[in-house]
Write a structure and sequence with these properties.
- Strands 1, 2, 3, 4, 5 and 6 form a six-stranded mixed β-sheet that branches.
- The chain starts with a strand and ends with a strand.
- Helices cover 39% and strands 29% of the residues.
- Helix 3 (87-97) packs across helix 5.
- By secondary structure, the protein is an alpha/beta fold.
- The protein is globular and about 50 Å long.
- It has one domain: Rossmann fold (3-Layer(aba) Sandwich).
- It has five helices and six strands; from the N terminus they run βαββαβαβααβ.
Length: 140
């Protein structure tokens, strides 16, 4: 059904669920799963700084998610990008570049007030994506 599935991973343990969902949708031998991670940067006087102090650990986790997919026999690769813009926009651009048929994304973990004011990452992704978006709710 899908030839390319892009998973928007923030490198968290909760993103493992997104990878599992993508793996369940992938057909062995015909579907490629791309695990995409965006390093969000803040521009400041001293240049751009990463938003997440543990960015190296997050990137390592994303690489482990890809390794787990490969170990399960899934054709998988990692795409990483840094941006001072929104992660949703970068993920949508990556999906366009790799001709994704589906994006698997999670909901925001900023909390209900921030989600109401700013919208969730999944909501932003739906507006920007060049393909369907499957938004998987995060469970605490």
């Amino acid at each position: 059904m899908f030839t390319t599935i892009l998973v928007a991973s923030d490198g968290s343990e909760k993103a493992d669920l997104l990878v599992t969902v993508a793996q369940s949708l992938a057909r062995r031998g015909t579907t490629k799963v791309i695990v995409a991670h965006v390093n969000e940067l803040m521009a400041g006087r001293g240049g751009a700084q990463t938003v997440h102090a543990n960015e190296d650990l997050l990137k390592r986790k994303v690489r482990l998610q890809v390794a787990d997919l490969r170990a399960a026999g899934v054709d998988a690769e990692v795409h990483m990008q840094a941006t001072t813009g929104t992660a949703a926009k970068s993920i949508a651009e990556m999906a366009r570049e790799c001709h994704a048929d589906l994006i698997v994304a999670g909901t925001s973990h900023h909390g209900p007030i921030a989600d109401l004011v700013f919208g969730t990452a999944g909501q932003r992704m739906i507006r920007l994506a060049p393909c369907p978006v499957l938004v998987v709710p995060r469970h605490n």
